Amino acid sequence: MNEFLSSLTTLLGDGGVLVGRDIDGYLLDQRRRWQGAALAVARPRTTGDVAAAVRLCAEHGVSIVPQGGNTSLCGAATPDTTGRQLVISFERMNHIVEVDAANDTVTVEAGATIAEVQAAARAANRLFPAEWAASASARVGGALGTNAGGVNVLHYGNMRELTLGLEVVLADGSVWNGLRGLRKDNTGYDLKHLFIGAEGTLGLITRAVLRLYPVLSARATALVTVTDPAASVALLRGLQAAIGDRVTSFELISRRCWELLAEHCPELPHPHAQPPQWCVLVEVSDAGDSDALLERLAEALMALDFDDALVAQSEQDAQAFWALRESIPEAQRRRGVSIKHDVAVPISAIPAFLTEAEAALKAEFPTADIVAFGHVGDGNLHYNVFLDDKTNAVYADEPAINHVIYRLVASLHGTLSAEHGIGVLKRDELAHYRDPLELTLMHAVKRALDPRNLMNPGKVIQAED
User: Fold this and answer.
1) 102-115: buried (b, 16+ CB within 10 Å) or exposed (e) per residue?
2) InterPro entries under this entry (predicted)?
C-alpha cells in the first residue's frame, strides 16, 4: 500500500495523512469497547479533498470508515482489525459556511461540532435546537449519520427534521450537491433521506443546510415527582393540552439515576432530600417573559394535581437541573460496564415496557441493576442493565439480555435503535427485528450506491455474499 499512501499524501498535503502511533486515538471508540486498526487516517480540508481521496480508495480497493467526533456508542466510527481500512476524519472540515438568518438556515461543513453550530446560530439571534450531552464533541456529519436526537426532539424533531439539504461524496468519488435551503421541493425522490441515518455506508456527508429557529427568550423548568411512568404520560398529555407545543423537553428519570448521581457525581448538588421513585424534568419555552411562563407552568401543574414539583426560580436553577440530567451517562460510566439499550416504543406503551422489562430481566438475572431514563416525550428510553461484574465480562450475558429487551420492544411495535444508530453493536440484531422485505430493500440501496462495499463496510447491514 506504499503507492496508495504516497498518492494520498500528495493529494492531502502536510498534516493530511496520519500513520503509526499518531492514529491511536482514532482507533478506539468512546465506550472503549471496539479497538480497531487502520492503514492510515486521512484529514481532508475540502469536499474536493474528500472526493479525490474516495476516488483513490476506489482505484486501490481500499474501504473507508468516516469519523466525526468519534462519539459513536455503537462502534459505527471504528475501523475493523485488518489494518487495511482508511479512516477519513472530518475534524479539519469544521467551518460554518453561511448563516442565512432571513431564511432560518445555516450551512456547515460536516466536521463542525453541534456546539459550534449552536454558537453561530446564537450570534445571528437564532436557535439551532439539537442538544445532547456530547454536543461539544459530536460533529454534524456523525449526528446526521446516526439521525441523532437529544432532549429537544419532542418540539423540534431529530436531525432528519432539522436538515434541508446535503452535499455527499459517493463511493466513486462523484459529488452530489443537494445543498438546498428549501422547505418545499417536490422534484422527485428526496435523496438526502438516504444518507441521514446511514452511518456513512452509502456516501460521505461533507456539508449540510440545517434549520434554524427564533430564539425563545422565556423558559420555565421543573422537576416533577410522579408516582409511576403512567403518571408521567398523563402529565405530558395534560401539559400539552394546557400549554400546547410550548412543552419543548420532557425527560423521565428513575430513582436509580438519582442514586447513581449521588454516589458517583457527589460534586453536583442534589435537589431532593430523598430521591423520588420517578420524576420528570420538564421544560417549556416561549417568546416573552420568563416569569409569566413560570407562573403558567406552575398553575398547569397545580391544576393537573402534580403539586410535588421543584420549579426552577432562576436560570442557574434550571442549568443545575439539566446538569444532573446530562450527568447520568457519566455516573453510569463511573459505576462500571453496562449493557446499554437505546429503544423507542409508542409513548402509550412506555409504562408497559418498563414494568414488563424489569419483571422479565429480574426473572433471569435476579441481581440486575436497571437504570432507566430518557426522552419519554418522544418514546425514546435509555434502558441500561448492570450486573455484579463491573468489567467487560458482562458482555457475555449481552445476547440473553438483548433477547429479553428487544423481543419485548418488538411486541410493543417499537425499535431497537431510536437515536444512537446501529453500527456493529446492533447490526446482527437488526436482521432479526426488521421485516425481510425492508432488509431486501436496504441491501438493494447499498448495492446501487456502493456496489464494491467500500463505504463503512460491516456497519448497519452485513454485506451479501
Assistant:
1) eebbbbbbbbbbbb
2) FAD-bd_oxidored_4_C, FAD-bd_PCMH, FAD-bd_PCMH-like_sf, FAD-bd_PCMH_sub1, FAD-bd_PCMH_sub2, FAD-linked_Oxase-like_C, FAD-oxidored/transferase_4, Oxid_FAD_bind_N
pLDDT digits 0-9 by tens, 421-454:
999 999 999 999 999 999 999 999 999 999 999 9
Give the cell for residue 254: 428513575
- Ordered structural domains, the chain, with CATH: 2-89 (3.30.43.10), 96-214 (3.30.465.10), 218-330 (3.30.70.2190), 336-433 (3.30.70.2740)
10-24 b/e with 16+ CB inside 10 Å = b? Answer: ebbeeebbbeeeebe
CB atoms inside a 10 Å sphere around CB 415: 18
Distance from the first to the final alpha carbon of the chain: 26
pLDDT in tens, 304-349: 999 899 999 999 999 999 999 999 999 999 999 999 999 999 999 9
Any residues with CB less than 8 A from the CB of 224 and at least 6 apart, and which?
A: 235, 279, 280, 281, 282, 301, 306, 308, 309, 310
